[in-house]
Design brief:
The chain is α+β, with helices and mostly antiparallel strands and 119 residues long. It has helices at 3-25, 82-85, and strands spanning 30-37, 40-46, 51-56, 61-67, 70-75, 96-98, 103-109. It has a domain at 30-109: mini-chromosome maintenance (MCM) complex, domain 2 (Sandwich), CATH 2.60.320.
Length: 119
């Protein structure tokens, strides 16, 4: 490896770091979670307040927990329990979807805008 190869590698690494910083700063800060059942909004949860909540899904109650700016489904009635296995979510780009219960939890940023809409 020559001196110019090392300089090229360092320059490429520096450029990649400089390009990723604006991307990370542009993400909205999550502030609330919107819980919808059958496309109807049932709850709007403030992510700054820890707590446990429950909504009635198609197959029974869906228990939701908010802690430290993240949200998760703790218990629900479905064949494979995928939404409770998903764990904690704090990104506006990652919804929690419980299809058998027809329940969707979307996280919204401070401005109320969303990155992803699932219908």
């Amino acid at each position: 490896m020559t001196k110019w190869d090392k300089i090229l590698i360092v320059c490429l690494m520096a450029a990649s770091v400089l390009l990723i910083v604006p991307i990370l700063q542009g993400q909205p800060v999550p502030s609330q979670a919107v819980v919808s059942v059958r496309n109807e909004e049932k709850l709007r949860l403030n992510l700054a307040q820890n707590g446990s909540y429950s909504v009635k899904g198609t197959l029974g109650p869906v228990n939701i927990e908010v802690q430290d700016g993240s949200v998760r489904v703790t218990q629900e009635n479905s064949p494979h329990h995928y939404c409770s296995r998903q764990g904690w979510v704090n990104s506006t780009a990652v919804p929690i979807v419980c299809l058998p219960n027809e329940t969707v939890i979307r996280i919204q940023g401070e401005s109320g805008s969303e990155d992803t809409v699932i219908q």
